[in-house]
Write a structure and sequence with these properties.
Length: 336
């Protein structure tokens, strides 16, 4: 006699497995649903931050404007230094080495020596000034044209002007000694004191801009931190309720991080506009002054790469400032 089949045995047969029954459902939520929920949470936080900033347009604008002024100062000084360097032609040209040749060196030998020097790896450019050209320039600059014409022969030697690749005191002195030993060279002259002054001015400008940048970055972090702190205080009750029902620190922090990034974005764009219009306004006076000296020099605008870097840096500063402000007050926001 066969044993009776109990109801408890039927589920065991279905679970055990011919595979024809329904597949068991996973207890873990699907990745797609989690990712969609994550995107929706960030979208809601971003929209909420935009709406809150839009409700206070004047206050938000002036906060971005203060940050923009602080951002534009170091960037503007850096751009002015670049323009001043370009105005001087280059630091390398200020460190030219003058090779005074012997009086018996004619134009053919002088040009051959110039070509030989131009092929040196340490040399960026070499130019030849003949004896006649040197005399003509001296007559025009000195105002002694009539007296110089009475001389029986030209007393000035030919000159080769050498522009080095790098402005380094040790390398320039080595290059000067090498050039002084070339055949036909009577004297190789280099104003090392002027080179040191130029290098010192450049280093001073770089350090000043770097120090000012650090100071203003700290100022920006304080401004954005204080602004986010005010937003936190205005929403203290709401945050305490969110944490009471189980809201995580990340969920509470997210809207304020977006708010800080939006402040940074607005400040970066305003700083870019301030620099562009400021340089354009200053360029009118610079062009007029340069025209009086017979020069076509003009200030260069804000490069696109520098502009995008400025905006990106402002967004990062806003994000970091908001993070620091929320992290400081997050423990105080625990539900009571």
């Amino acid at each position: 006699m066969s044993a009776a089949q109990t109801p408890e045995s039927k589920p065991a047969e279905r679970v055990g497995g011919s595979g024809k029954g329904p597949r068991p459902q996973s207890d873990e939520p699907e990745f797609k649903a989690l990712f969609h929920a994550w995107l929706e949470s960030h979208r809601a936080s971003l929209v909420d931050s935009l709406m809150r900033l839009g409700k206070q347009p004047i206050g938000s604008f002036f906060t971005c404007l203060v940050m923009a002024v602080a951002l534009s100062l170091p960037m503007g000084l850096a751009l002015l230094l670049d323009n001043v360097e370009r105005l001087g032609g280059s630091w390398q040209r200020a460190a030219q080495i003058s090779l005074f040749l012997q009086l018996d060196v004619d134009d053919q030998r002088g040009q051959a020596l110039r070509d030989r020097i131009s092929e040196m790896p340490e040399v960026a450019e070499a130019s030849w000034i003949s004896r006649d050209q040197a005399l003509e320039e001296f007559q025009q600059l000195s105002g002694l044209g009539e007296a110089l014409r009475e001389l029986p022969e030209n007393p000035l030697p030919g000159v080769v002007l050498v522009t080095p690749h790098e402005v380094d005191k040790a390398k320039l002195e080595t290059l000067r000694q090498t050039l002084a030993e070339l055949p036909g060279v009577q004297q190789a002259q280099l104003d090392l004191l002027w080179v040191e002054r130029l290098s010192a001015i450049l280093r001073l400008g770089d350090r000043f801009v770097f120090g000012l940048t650090l100071l203003l970055v700290a100022t920006l972090l304080l401004v954005i931190g204080n602004t986010i702190r005010l937003h936190i205080e205005n929403r203290r009750t709401e945050i305490e309720v969110v944490k009471l029902v189980g809201g995580t620190d990340g969920y509470v922090r997210r809207p304020f991080l977006y708010m800080g990034a939006l402040y940074g974005l607005g400040a970066g764009l305003l700083a870019w506009l301030l620099l562009a219009f400021g340089l354009d306004w200053l360029n009118e006076a610079v062009v007029r002054l340069a025209g009086l000296y017979g020069s076509d020099f003009a200030l260069a605008g804000v490069p696109a790469d520098d502009g995008f870097s400025l905006v990106l840096g402002a967004v990062l500063l806003g994000y970091i400032g908001a993070w620091l402000a929320v992290a400081r007050h997050l423990n105080e926001l625990a539900p009571r």
